[in-house]
Amino acid sequence: MSIPSRSHFKPSLSSLWAGLQTTVSVSSATYAYLTNAHYPPAPHRKKLLLAFAALGSISAILFLLVPSTSPAWPLIAPLAVCANVGFGASIVALNAYIPTLAQGAQEVIEARANLARHTRSADLPAEPHDSADTASEADEPLLAQTSDEDSARAAKAEHDKILSTTTSRISSQGIALGYASGIVMLLLALIPVRAMKGSTDALRLAIGLSGIWWAVFSLPAAVWLPGAATIANATHSLEEDGDNVPPRAAGDEQKWSMTREIARAWRRLGQMLRWREIKKLRNTFTYLAAWFLLSDGFTTITSTALLFGKTTLHMPASSLVLIGALTPSAGILGSLVWPMVQRRAGWSNLRVLVVLVAMASAIPAYGCLGFLPVFQKGSVKFGGLTTPAEMYVLAVYFGSVYGAFQGYARAFYAEFIPPGEEARWYALFSITDKSSSFVGPLVVGLIADTTGNIRYAFFFLVVMIWAAVPVLMAVDVERGRADAQRYAAHAAM
């Protein structure tokens, strides 16, 4: 097997700048606009979602009006930034809906009502008894109270389990729909690209069609997603059922201003990242540390595998495009199947995540087997990621894992973020994802440039993925959920 020259791995300055520009624009705008205080995001979430969807889709559609021969061609740079900002910010607002939608699911409502009944029974004072009662009669209220407390604890455990699985189901279904939509749009965009032989105008048309697609399918969100009134009613229902929902100060709805919140956003970031604040939400930040490693690890597996297929296995561009389509297609299946596996096995979201991470690490580990003499000398014609056919199999395998991982990663995070501050904390979730995106590719590039063989990067990827597992296992979900409730209640004072 030939080893590609080091020139294959040297990134161009323009590509590095484009990646940096995208990361900075998405991260800064996402946080500046969506890290609101604990009170505005819920009622204003739909407005923010639709506003940023409009910004992104219109920016993409405007590509149709700027031909490459026009003096206005440089305007595509700010249009691209606006489209990225709109996408990143709307995704944060969309993610922030997950806890609200889960709380409104019928099975969660029933479990919450059952919990409220048992909690009220456990809180009822014991009736006074006459002093002439026998000792056995006097013990009956104590036994009944103990039984009520046990029932309340069991009801709470059942409620938390149902809420957790419902959250992961909604998140996974969203990932599956997103993958399906992306594949359909990709196939539609390929028509003008192939017909116009990949010209600049063909790419402009593809981007413009993507903007139209985005705008059209934002309409169902505008019609059916709950707005301010629905969220307010849901919050009132939670309060009646005894859930810990932070109170909102009178007049907050009138006070809120996006302009003022943008100015406050960066101050809040500094406050959130103080050690004193991190200790209050230790488990939330522990998970963010694991997410920093995992999000970068998964995306680096994708980019490294494609680069490996191109430079080492010498796969043509058409084959790489097919792999790029197979991965999200398998992601749809994985997103839908894993919630069923979870329900059948009775696993928690944390356990599912650990299993998915372990399964993902098998891909770079399999690539490391290519260094074994049995594969190097060609004694065995298949194995160790030495043939193009293996890339197709791994694309399906990785897609099924990655699709489920994306759904469970954001659903698990929803379990221990402060109620009412979802947009703020999902913005930090997004920033953690974006800010880590350069680490893996940078190290992989250095390894490939130093050794001249990108296969060595698979060892780094195995270590990177497994380094996140002990951090992930250190998350105490119950304590994290309680800490988030206390944090929200304290912030509301």
Automatic annotation (TrEMBL):
Transmembrane parts of this sequence: 16-36, 48-66, 72-98, 174-193, 205-225, 284-308, 320-338, 350-372, 392-413, 425-448, 454-475
Role, per record: Vacuolar effluxer which mediate the efflux of amino acids resulting from autophagic degradation. The release of autophagic amino acids allows the maintenance of protein synthesis and viability during nitrogen starvation.
Membrane topology listed for this record: Multi-pass membrane protein
InterPro entries from the UniProt entry: Atg22-like, ATG22/LtaA_families, MFS_trans_sf
GO biological process, one term: autophagy
Domain of life (superkingdom): Eukaryota
Name of the protein in its database record: Autophagy-related protein
Record's keyword terms, sorted: Amino-acid transport, Autophagy, Membrane, Transmembrane, Transmembrane helix, Transport, Vacuole
Subcellular location: Vacuole membrane
Family of this protein: Belongs to the ATG22 family.
Keyword Acyltransferase annotated: no
Transmembrane as UniProt keyword: yes
Lineage of producing organism: Eukaryota, Fungi, Dikarya, Basidiomycota, Agaricomycotina
Species in which this protein is naturally found: Trametes pubescens
One GO CC term on file: vacuolar membrane
